[in-house]
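Entry for the shared binder. Reason: the reviewer on the internal report wants the predicted structure included alongside the sequence.
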Amino acid sequence: MPVYQQIIVALPHYSSTALADLFKKYTSIILSSKGVIRGIENHGIRPLPEKAKRKYPTVDGKRYFWEARFVTCTFDSSPLGLVDIDRMLKTEEGVLRYYTIKVKPKIGFTMNNSFRNPYL
């Protein structure tokens, strides 16, 4: 199965319990498609390079955001499992954006369980 790395940009005021529930759904989708989760890293709240516009305003009435919570996930999944993950993230109201990268396999990558995001 291919290895994917996904960067999820969530709303800054998204609570930790809601974030945990999001990743419970996230991991159940990956595991149901016979995938493996290699790691989830929470990078905290960081400023965005430019303001992000949300499609619909939040309950507070905010539509533009200058900072967001960044989370990086590394996992193995089939392409059909990735489609299910994308569908779930599109409908989740706490997610601003998400980016998926297919990681090229390296020797020793599968043996090392402590993969860290080299871009952050």
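Summary line for the report: The radius of gyration is 15 Å.
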